[in-house]
Write a structure and sequence with these properties.
The protein is α+β, with helices and mostly antiparallel strands. It has 11 helices and 17 strands. It is globular, with a radius of gyration of 21 Å. Bound molecules: adenosine-5'-diphosphate and magnesium ion.
Amino acid sequence: MTAVLHPHPAAALAAPSRPLAAPAFLRRIWRPATDLAVDLGTANTLVVVQGEGLVLDEPTVAAVGPGGEVLGAGLDAKRMIGRAPAGVRVIRPLKDGVIADFSVAEQLLRTFLRRVLDRHLIRMKPSVLVCVPSCITDVERRAVRDAARSAGAKRLRTVDEPVAAAIGAGLPVNEPSGSLVVDVGGGTTDVAVLSLGSVVCDASIRTGGDAMDQAIVQFLRKHYNLLVGDATAERVKLALGSAAPFEVEQTLPVRGRDLISGLPRTVTVESVGVRDAMHEPVQRIVNAVRRVLEATPPELSRDLVDRGIVLTGGGAMIRGLDALLTYETGLPVRVDLDPLTSVVRGTGMILGEPGRWADVLAA
Ligand code: ADP
Ligand code: MG
C-alpha cells in the first residue's frame, strides 16, 4: 500500500535559495562555499552546499597504504574492493554506523571537503552541519566533531540522522504529532518516532544492507559452493533481492570461484533463494520497527495510523520491503522518492532555514 503523506520537498536540491544575476557556474567559482550539509553514512557520503544543492555523492570507502595514508577515496577506492594490490587495504571506516577507524575517517572527510571547496576560487573555512546516528555515544559524537574540525571545518554542528531523514522526506517534524521514519542504511537501520522536532522513541540496530550482502555471500557458498566478494553479493542483492515474492521470479548468472576446484565458475541464482537468504536481516529490521511501535505513546500511535511509515536510506529500495512492513504492522508505508539522498536533503533544508529548525540542532 502506498500513502501520499506530504508534499515532497524536491526543491531542496534545486536552484539557489537567493536568485543572483551571475550564471550558476560563475557563482560556483566565485562565491565561497560557506555552509555545508554532510551525510557521513556507513556506505555513502553526500554533501550539499547551501545555494548549490548536492555537489558530492561518493562511497565512504578509502584505499589505505602501508603507512596508513589514504591513497584513494570514494568511487576510485570502492572499485578496488577485493582487487587491491599488495600492501593496499580498502577500508570502510564507518562500518557499524560510527567511526571505527578515526584516522582514515578524518582523512576521507578531509579529502571530500577539499574536493567540494576546491571547486571555488575563493575559499573559506566552511561551517558544517553533519548528521549522526541518534544512538551515538558522546565519545563517538566527539570523534565526528574532531574529524570534521581537523578536516577544515570552522564551525561544526550535528543533527540526529532520523530527524534529518524525516525532514528530507517531507514529514511535518515540527508539529506536535507523530511521524515514523525507518532509515535502512549500509551498516545500520534507524527507526524513530518524531514529534515537535525531536526523537520520542527509537531503535538503532547494526543491521542494514551490508548484513544482507553478507547473508548472500554465505548463501552462495553453502548452496552453490561458490565464493564471491562483497561487491558481487551487493550486485546480486540489487538485481534479485526482495522482501516479498515477485509476480514472476527471476534468475541471474553469477560468477565467482568454485570452492572445490578453485577455478572460476558461473552459476544461475534464483530470486527465491536470495529472498530466503536475506530473510533474517530483513526480519531484524521488521522487529526493530515493531519494538518502536510498542514503545510509542498511545496519542502518537494514533497519528501513525493515518501518517504511516516513511522508508529512507538505500535499503528502502529493497523490493517488497514496504509491502512486508505494511503486512507486519498494518500501517501504510511510503518509500521516499529518492531514499539515498533523504538525509542530506533534510540536513540541507535545516541549513537553509536555521530559524525554523533551531530546535532540532544539537549544540
Ligand atoms: P548509509 O547511510 O549507511 O551510507 P545508504 O543510505 O547510502 O547507507 O544505503 C546504502 C545501502 O543501500 C547499501 O547497502 C546498498 O547496497 C543499498 N542499496 C542501494 N540501492 C539499493 C537498491 N536499489 N535496492 C536495495 N538496496 C540498495
Ligand atoms: Mg544514511
